[in-house]
Amino acid sequence: MAQPITVSPEALAERVSRIFLAAGLSPLQAETLAATIVAGERDACKSHGIYRIEGCLRTVAAGKVQPQAEPELQDDGSPVVRVDAKGAFSTAAFAVGLPVLVARARQHGLAAMVVNSCTHISALWPEIEAITAEGLAAMAMCPSYATVAPAGGSAPLLGTNPFAFGWPRKDASPYVFDFATSVMARGDVELHRIEGRPLPEGTAVDRDGNPTTDPAEALAGAMLPFGGHKGSAISTMIELLAAAMIGDLTSTEALDYLGTTTLGPHHGELILAFSPERFAAGRGDPFARAETLFQAILGQGARLPSQRRFEARKRAAAEGIPLTAEEVEMLERLERAPFGAQA
Ligand code: NDP
Fold first, then answer.
1. Atom number, ligand 1, closest to the C-alpha of residue 164
2. How confident is the model at residue 343 (pLDDT cuts 50, 70, 90)?
3. Would you kindly state where each structural domain of the chain is located, as residue ranges?
4. Which N-terminal residues, if any, form the signal peptide (predicted)?
5. Three-class SS of residue 338?
6. Ligand 1 pocket check for 307: Cβ under 6 Å
7. 171 part of the active site
8. DSSP-derived 3-state class of residue 126
9. How far away, in angstroms, is 177 Cα from ligand 1 center?
10. Is 47 assigned a catalytic role?
11. Topology of the domain comprising 1-61+306-343
């Protein structure tokens, strides 16, 4: 029986990367995917931490991701930077497009990265933080597979469609939020099922469209958008901008392509980067004005989004990432045979 351990983020990233390399991923895909998954574990975002490794490997084993694909930058010099992931994990496509996106946003004030044909299993905040680290504001969004009913509906049509925003701060961690447009991220519903915990009321409906708090029934039925018609409209907007507009799969098409919700979804992603200075055009200091707003929020006793993550990150840097005996056992099992359970 494995023992619980504490491990540095760097050592864990190396370990996870080795598992992906042994599973046949290219070095770029293995490294970027491992870095994103370990960032989730490090920041106490368990639903996007090492629990995701097995889902990635299942997707490789099912042939629904191209492990050796090299994402291709399609650059026509315009502010719309395209990366054809060619079936690779989205993390590799983002890494290929990031330097050009940043350069174009500085040059034009606004630039967009369109990622096509990727497998996307990630939280969006690692990408948002890579852009805010360059002094740019950022937005990212993508569809998922159809597991969410529109407000007033009863059957899956929309994805959990994540939406994220970031604002760079000079002497502090960036302002970042990143959320599913469903009441709960699907990974969290899955964690509730694994841990035998009921869902909060209003999270989901069963396959007959009746409200349920049973995570297994919710996974078989449909989740609900957050904020009723408002979340439903934002989620629909994401289907339009990050699927229909960029010539990629909607959540319904992504589910048809996969035929299951147990594999990482295949679709596109839209990422926007803005230069606050270029938009402000001398009409005041946007960064100073942002600080005034953040201080007013904090002054009311509220917290800024992502602060919980940044605190977990500091703890992980100082003390390491704690892994349970079950998590260590999973890593050891996958190190012995990445496709052991799936092949
Ligand atoms: P949460 O509801 O947990 O958090 C949403 C955001 O709100 C976070 O930035 C969080 O910061 C912040 N927040 C939470 N509580 C407060 C508070 N009291 N005051 C201020 N801010 C707060 O996110 P979700 O469960 O909706 O989504 C989790 C992740 O799942 C996201 O990273 C998303 O990208 C990912 N996802 C990915 C999908 C995909 O297909 N790739 C699909 C759906 C979701 P903090 O983290 O610090 O608590």
1. 34
2. very low
3. 1-61+306-343, 69-182+225-305
4. none
5. coil
6. yes
7. no
8. helix
9. 7
10. yes
11. Hypothetical Oxidoreductase Yiak; Chain: A, domain 1 (1.10.1530)
Judge whether 17 counts as a catalytic residue.
no
Instruction: Tell which CATH architecture fits domain 69-182+225-305.
Output: 2-Layer Sandwich (3.30)
Q: Report whether residue 144 contacts ligand 1, using a CB cutoff of 6 Å.
A: yes
Q: Which protein residue has the closest C-alpha to ligand 1 atom 27? A: 179
Q: Which of 178, 182, 199, 224 has most ligand 1 atoms within 8 Å of CB, for mutation?
A: 178
Looking at per-residue pLDDT, the higher value among 302 and 185 belongs to 302
Q: Residue 316 C-alpha to ligand 1 middle, in angstroms?
A: 19
Is 80 exceeded by the pLDDT of residue 234?
yes
Span of 84-88, 111-115, 141-145, 336-340 with lowest mean pLDDT: 336-340
**pLDDT at 342 > cutoff 60:** no
CA distance 136 to 209: 43
For ligand 1, atom 5, the nearest C-alpha belongs to: 179
Lowest-pLDDT range of 44-53, 89-98, 304-313, 334-343: 334-343
Q: Which pLDDT value is given to residue 185?
A: 81
| Residue nearest (by alpha carbon) to ligand 1 atom 3 | 179
Name the token pair of 282: 């001398």
The two beta strands, 137-141 and 266-274, are antiparallel
**pLDDT tens track for 170-185:** 999 999 999 999 999 8
| Lateral strand order in the sheet of 211-212 | 211-212, 204-205, 222-223
Q: How many residues comprise the chain?
A: 343
**Spatial distance between the Cα atoms of 296 and 16, rounded to a whole number of angstroms:** 41
Q: Which atom of ligand 1 is the closest one to the Cα of 304?
A: 20
Segment 278-283 shows an average pLDDT of 97
In percent, the amount of the chain with pLDDT more than 90 equals: 94
Is residue 66 within 6 Å of ligand 1 at its C-beta? no
DSSP 149: P
Nearest-atom index, ligand 1, CA of 125: 32
